[in-house]
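Page 42, continued from yesterday. The earlier attempt failed because a stray header line got pasted into the input along with the sequence. Redoing it now with the clean sequence only.
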Amino acid sequence: MDNLRKTVVSLAMAVGIFLIGTTGYFFIEDWNIFDAAYMTAITLSTVGYAETHEISMAGRVFTMFLIFAGAGYFLYLASVLVQTVVEGELITILGRRKLDKAIKKLDNHYIVCGYGRIGRTLCNLIREETSQLVVIEHDEALVPVLEKDNIFYLHGDASDESLIQKAGIVKAKVFIAALATDAANVFLVLTARQLNPGIFIMARASNESVKQKLLIAGANIVESPYDTGATSMGLKLLRPNVSSFLDIATSRSKDGIQIEESIVSTNSKYANVMLKDSGIRQEYDLIIIAIKKENGEMHFNPSFDTMIEPGGTVISMGKTGAQNAFHQSLNPD
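This time it went through. Structure tokens are written below.
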């Protein structure tokens, strides 16, 4: 039985025993309702007060029955309370152990420190690509939110080096410092870079002056939500059509237009094929916006004779379904 059902049963038993006792004294001893109820109350509570009236032999037998019934009820109630507490603790302990084991198995994953508004949005985007994600969050009030979102998490201070190690920093692919304060993010970046020199680190900054410090500390990318928000507002004001187009292109709507990037694997049918011979436009109805070479050279609006090279990245625009199919063709199993 669940806890709610057990509570209802316990209350029903208490009311039932009290009504039986009151009714019994009312009929057996011919007392009024108040006296019968009072006698039932002092009998069940075992407070030891004197009997309300002289009691007959039948009344004494009934009182013995009521005492045993009350004792049985309280034993049941005690067992329900103990079981509820023990089961709750066991569920918590077993759930935490299961979660820790799952986190320990993660490899090439993302670590996000902070699950506020920015951290949660980042996690939602990351989960569109992979479930290999663990969050470190200090605020206990956000733990139920993490559990509701079904995200692997560790509760504690992200500045604790042992907690970062428990999150699998050595095996992780990306580390994101998205805490509320710049000082905390600088310390996080320094710690992460020390524990895993090769990891990709993204950090949040509140202003331009902190960006340089985070880069020096070891961050690969530093973003300021305030700057990004201000830029978006400016575009909506001064370039409303451009802003609308970008909103559509960067939305995560399944039926909308998306801008995506895909790395070209060596066994792709498009590897070492010129753009003019690829047939991408005809097959997928996609627009190739840019091609980035493996050496980092970016070709915007590539010409028809641009070579699609293994290890390079193709940036395309089109509908989500076509994008997924094209990504699969560039990275076949």
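Notes: The chain has three domains: 3-101, 106-229, 253-330.
Reminder to self: strip header lines before submitting.
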